[in-house]
Please model this.
Amino acid sequence: MKITAATVDEAMKSALPNKTKFYFDDDLAGFGFYRTTTGTGTYFAEFRPVAGGPKKRLKLGRVGTLKANEAREAARRAIANAALGKDLAASRADERASVTVKSLVDTYIEDFVAVNKKASSAEFYRTMLTKHVEPHLGTVKAVALTRVDVQRAHAAMTKTARISANRAMKLLSAAYGWGGKNGYVPEGMNPAAGIDLNKETGRERFLTAEEMQRLGDAMREAETVGFEVNAGSAKHAPKGQRVKMHPSVTGAVRLIMLTGCRLREILHLRWSEVDAERGLLFLPDSKTGRKTVVLSTAAVEVLTALPHIGVYVIAGESAGLQDEKPRADLKRPWAQITNRAGLDGLRIHDLRHSFASVGAWSGLGLPVIGKLLGHADASTTARYAHIADDAARRGADVIANQIADALGGK
Model:
């Protein structure tokens, strides 16, 4: 057949073969693709590296990943090089043999993740590589890595970071999957697949009304009279002195509590993305993509009370400067606030959970809560179903009690 995008598409839509079926091109001898019994198609080039020697078949890439015209050109180069005595299959094997696990994962991050996903995802993967994958497996040749090696590495990572050990395994598995499609390791090779991961349990914590009051009291104290400085808790203040927190810090905490936004969404929020008049935030790049946040009156009041210093709503150290950057985190002040409120162990992300739990307890439906939180998948909001059930039960009691009273003649 003449291998073109149209003919390949037609062949891929035909009934599944009962054994691997090969298709050869009419024009370029040695160029073709095959389709397996599972429906997977792969382009290849066949050639003889040495006249009279055995044929070799070089996989060029998957149908769907590689276009027909791209595969044809790759096949033409491979066959031409074979005619000149160059064995690309052997060269690729030699190249594979020299790639380390560190190099494979690093290339995957820079060539795929950094190009196709968010910058924060690429940065997270780089951290996983540096802290977990590289120390245990970095120098191992990618093609020599075994599942036993990976399982042992996972066990070693688990001793210091149970959850991160799981994330590192998922990164490694994704890198091998991508590497197989792009010729860095043999296609189908994935020693990180099927690894026994650590059990993960939900870490949601919902603040009670009394805990919220304690948190509010601590923030008011922090921004008015300040906290007394303990040894090692502040860089430039002597022990015993009281230090006030900048209103941007407490304002950030209040905004998270009143909107259910993620920490980074608030820390990276620009004034240009705020429409206080209509009560909206227009986030161009949240975790789930572009997102509009509906503001309550209380949230608008917090926003309008914040000092307008620079580009970002939450002022950082470089606020107002030409190379202004958003504040990196709230770790130190958050630790001081929660310590003062007697809420040790409370995470900032728990404020988002608390926002959702109040909504569920108040009787708002899960779709509404999901929309307010910006969930892309309804299953993510389903974690609050048990709270919503409590609200529904209270509603059922109210209705049923009135009916029962009527039936009883009351």
User: Anything to note?
Assistant: The chain has 16 helices and nine strands. The mean pLDDT is 82. The beta strands are 21-24, 31-35, 41-47, 56-62, 227-228, 242-243, 274-275, 280-286, 289-294. The chain has three domains: 5-97, 101-181, 209-347.
